[in-house]
Amino acid sequence: MAPVAASHAADKATHAANAASSQAHTAASRLSRWVEDNKNLAVALGIGTVVAAGGGAYYYFGTQSSKSSRRPKSPPSSRVGDDGEKKSAAEDTKEAESGTSAAAASAAKSKKKKKGKKTTGGGPSIDEGLKSRDGPLLEEASDESLFALSPEEIAKLPQERRVPLAQALKAQGNKAYSSRNFQEAITLYTKAIAAQPLAVFFSNRAACYSNLGKHRDVISDCNSALETDPAYVKALNRRANAQEQIGQDADGDKPGKELEEKKDLLYQSLCDFTAVAILGGFSDTGATESVERVLKKLAAVKAREVLRTREPKLPSPTFVTAYLEAFRKKPMPTLPENASQADQTLLLAFEALEARNYPHASSLFNEAVEQGPSTDELKSLAYNMRGTFRFIIGQATEALEDLNNATDLQPSYVQSWVKKASVHMELGDKDEAFADFDKAVKANSEDPDIFYHRGQVHFILGQYTDAMADYDKSTSLDSSFIFSQVQHAVAQYKLGNITQSTSAFRSLLQRFGDSSEAFNYYGELLLDQQKFEDAMRNFDRAIEIEAAKDRSRNVLPMINKALALFQWKQDMAAAERLCREALNTDEDCDVAVATLAQLSLQQGKLPEAIEWFRRSAQIARTEPELNNAITYENASLAQLQFIKNFPEQGAALSAMAGGGLA
Ligand SMILES: *[C@@H]1O[C@H](CO)[C@@H](O)[C@H](O)[C@H]1NC(C)=O
Ligand SMILES: *[C@@H]1O[C@H](CO)[C@@H](O)[C@H](O)[C@H]1NC(C)=O
Ligand SMILES: *[C@@H]1O[C@H](CO)[C@@H](O)[C@H](O)[C@H]1NC(C)=O
Ligand SMILES: *[C@@H]1O[C@H](CO)[C@@H](O)[C@H](O)[C@H]1NC(C)=O
User: Fold this and answer.
1) Could you read off the pLDDT of 296-347 as tens digits, one per residue?
2) Which one, out of 94, 110, 253, 513, has a CA that is 20 to 30 A from the CA of 351?
3) Closest CA relative to residue 18, chosen from 453, 471, 517
4) Sign of CA dihedral 173, 176, 178, 180
5) What is the pLDDT of residues 472-515, one digit of tens each?
6) Closest ligand to Cα 375
């Protein structure tokens, strides 16, 4: 069993260190790991409704395409119930593409051929089966006068003439196709369609349009093919490719009708590729890769669009508090005797912060910056805090500008450098982040904040030994700051020293008996070791401590308890109840929403899962988080669409998911 709970500790650690990027990880990595870790469990529980299978299948797309190879190698035939006609239809395009089909070969014999000399001649064909099928038909139809008829005239022929003629025209079309005479092939398939509108003719003509880059014609022909044969995989695949081609250059930053259309096509492409992947029993890696590619594109476009249009909004108080408390408390700034209006505003802002009225604090800090406090020191503080809030809101670039001004005005103020390191990490620039820490050390080598936060960066990067050295340094400078000590114990656990980590936690719990964090993290480590009862006891204690607070309670212990109940007793209802309770306390708690989404998925409640993913997208703080939520939502939507479109295969899928994973 992979470390579910440890991932919490890690993510939560990350969180405290570098709130922004960590929170993105939290939602993303915690979830994907959770999904992965619990997949077998969920299936073992026998949650095997049709819809659940849709959810199950989703995991293969969203989190681990590589696993698709572990799927049963012989997928159930997606063409169950097909008659011979369809079967040959499925083969036909390949013939057209390869140019070695019996039909093409026999067609070559037809005197009608303009390019007879280029054909493979009448030699033995590769596919005897097809030859025996098409041969006789072709002879009946090899009347040149019929080939020359227009589609309209062909349509008027009696049925018994049209059927063999259609086959002959198709054979001719395939031949033209294999010689890459696409225009000619189109003419021939068009006549074949007039003779008999079989799905395969439409699909083959679509293949011609595809080669000519006429994507809209491809779509229209595939639509016709799929009308008669909705599970026609080749047509689905062609249509998906054409839709993707048109939607490819969708730009979320350029709103308008064109963007709407392209997004729509990308979504349809996703649905078609999803159907191809599922109908093919996930053995078609090309299809699963296509699903992921289109999903990625669609989510990126949508995320840009959302970021362009939405109002910046503070994340949940749990998140804000966690970030702010990762810095040791500072005294209130002292104002000069003749304090200006701006100075007063700044003080009010800090008071609002103290009262955890974050929206108010945020707007007051902004006001203070605009009014311009009277001293460099106060100006620097105002920039520092406005930058902090911008960072928390997800505006990393703007935050960096503010923090640059803060360090310019007061280079000796360590916290501004440390916060700059956070921002640089969020922007993916770890070298700059370490450079910021160096500057901070230069400003004051005895500030414990520096070492705690640098430890967190090492931790995120998996450098646990370096992280522990920094946590140690931080603790040696201030032993009252609990986070360095908690993280030290977690890093120890990460390095595999479980005994040492456990005894470190025991002593922390004695010294910080009123800190919910210590109980919560310790519970996570216990959960990771499957010590459910002990874990539960620690989560309960953490919940109790938080419940006694009158505002901005940390709800993470509740979510952890929910996960423990799910893993231990498979008690979905209780797990859901706890997550909902967490949401009552902190309505924007992204981890609660994400967990509810996954719990819904596990129970086969796809529509509910979709609602939760949508909500998750609404509260996502950063672009990667947003991307992640949208990806999940759209993947689930596409699968729901599949189950609606293909009820029978949906049932088969359910059986396969059970069989493949049990
Ligand atoms: C406060 O007093 C100092 C020293 O007299 C002066 O330089 C400064 O401009 C004054 N500030 C305000 C806001 O009046
Ligand atoms: C940073 O300070 C400079 C110089 O005072 C100012 O022009 C600029 O607008 C400030 N940046 C921000 C983001 O306020
Ligand atoms: C665990 O940590 C302790 C104390 O730091 C150390 O003495 C011990 O060698 C470590 N054990 C392992 C297996 O690393
Ligand atoms: C994909 O997910 C986004 C994110 O919430 C949603 O707004 C959008 O409607 C979905 N796309 C489609 C085509 O359903």
Assistant:
1) 999 999 999 998 888 888 888 878 888 898 898 889 999 999 999 999 999 9
2) 513
3) 453
4) negative
5) 999 999 999 999 999 999 999 999 999 999 999 999 999 998 88
6) 1
| Residue 23 near residue 15, CB atoms below 8 Å | yes
Q: Is 305 in the pocket of ligand 4 (CB under 6 A)?
A: no
What the chain holds in terms of domains, given with CATH numbers, is 79-247 (1.25.40.10), 329-445 (1.25.40.10)
Question: Which letter does DSSP use for residue 77 in this model?
Answer: P
Q: Is residue 638 lining ligand 4, measured as CB closer than 6 Å?
A: no
Contact 168, 141 (CB under 8 A): yes
User: Ligand 4: which residue has its CA nearest to atom 11?
Assistant: 634
CA–centroid distance, residue 600 to ligand 4 (Å): 18
Q: Which residues line ligand 1 (CB under 6 A)?
A: 336, 338, 340, 374
Site residues for ligand 3, CB cut-off 6 Å: 497, 500
DSSP annotation string for 355-423: TT-HHHHHHHHHHHHHH--SSHHHHHHHHHHHHHHHHHHT-HHHHHHHHHHHHHH-TT-HHHHHHHHHH
Comparing CA positions, the residue from 290, 288, 292 lying closest to residue 300 is 292
Q: Which amino acid is at 585?
A: T
Ligand 1 centroid–CA 375 distance in Å is: 9
Contact 204, 189 (CB under 8 A): yes
Q: DSSP letter for 275, please.
A: H
From ligand 2's centre to the CA of 208, what distance in Å? 59
Give the 3-state secondary structure of 456-471: HHHHHCCCHHHHHHHH
| Token code pair at residue 494 | 């990460």
- pLDDT, tens digit, 9 for 90 and up, residues 399-434: 999 999 999 999 999 999 999 999 999 898 999 999
Compute, in angstroms, the gap from residue 353 CA to the centroid of ligand 2: 23
Ligand 4 centroid distance, CA of 24 (Å): 20
Q: Would you say 403 and 419 are in contact if contact means Cβ atoms under 8 Å apart?
A: yes
Give the position, in ligand 4's atom list, of the atom nearest the Cα of 614: 5
The residue contributing the CA closest to ligand 3 atom 10 is 497
Ligand nearest to the CA of 340: 1
Ligand number, closest to the Cα atom of 489 = 3
User: How many whole angstroms separate alpha carbon 400 and alpha carbon 382?
Assistant: 14
